Amino acid sequence: MSAQILKSIASRRTIYALKPELPTELSIKNVQATVQSIIKDVPTAFNSQGNRAVILTGATHKAVWDSVANAIDSPAGKKRPESVRDEAAGSVIFFTDDKVTEGLQENFPAFASAFPDFANHSSGAAQIDSWTALEASGLGAHLQHYNGYVKAALGSKIPENWTVQAQLCFGTPAAPAGEKTYIENPVDILE
Fold first, then answer.
1. What count of Cα atoms within 13 Å lies in the side-chain half-sphere of residue 69?
2. pLDDT above 80 for 1
3. Please, which pLDDT band fits residue 172 given cuts at 50, 70 and 90?
4. Residue 185: predicted pLDDT
């Protein structure tokens, strides 16, 4: 079992070249079920379950990414949001619920300063697990961080107390990932 998990982790790669469609055997409901399961099961500090996610597709996906591109002044800075708008089938938007974090800070003051970091760690786990699972389902994806722009574009569609953490942009791969090189980075055992 661990060999399959490790293979999935190694296969998860940044793929920017996407087609704005899902593979024929996959539906947006499959994507939703996968992300929902991960949001439910990824560990959180004190089992606080502060991760949130929404999936953008269709006209909403295009409108949000168009808004992001239009909010950026630099032509070079617009390129990635425009490619997401035009080439991705959808985006998973990851959030943390600030009310959950604030509640933990109030209830466990000894750890108050650490809870924002804990929320970020848990969100990161949900992002990577979702990316790996969607890749294993036949999707290509890349992770973006246009957080403030995306929050502004979503406006009242999401609660004010949700902080945008990342965007996982997905679609059918149009080209494979580039070559990956590795550094020497041994894991030592200390006894």
1. 17
2. no
3. very high
4. 95
Q: What ranges in the chain are assigned the alpha helix state H? A: 2-11, 28-41, 58-71, 75-87, 98-107, 115-136, 147-154
Q: Identify whether the C-beta of residue 154 lies closer than 8 Å to the C-beta of residue 73.
A: no
In DSSP notation, 164-178 reads EEEEEEEEEESSPPP
Nearest Cα to Cα of residue 40 among 25, 29, 28, 52: 52
CATH architecture of structural domain 21-155: 3-Layer(aba) Sandwich (3.40)
* Tokens encoding 98: 């600030």
Nearest of 162, 150, 156 to residue 123 by alpha carbon: 162
Residues constituting the chain: 191
| Distance, C-alpha 125 to centroid of its chain | 9
DSSP state of 138: T
Closest alpha carbon to 83 in 165, 13, 169, 184 = 169
Are 144 and 166 a contacting pair, CB within 8 Å?
Answer: yes
pTM of the model: 0.96
> Rounded distance, CA 144 to CA 65, Å?
11
Tell me the per-residue pLDDT of 102-145, one tens digit each, with 9 for 90 and over.
Answer: 999 999 999 999 999 999 999 999 999 999 999 999 999 999 99
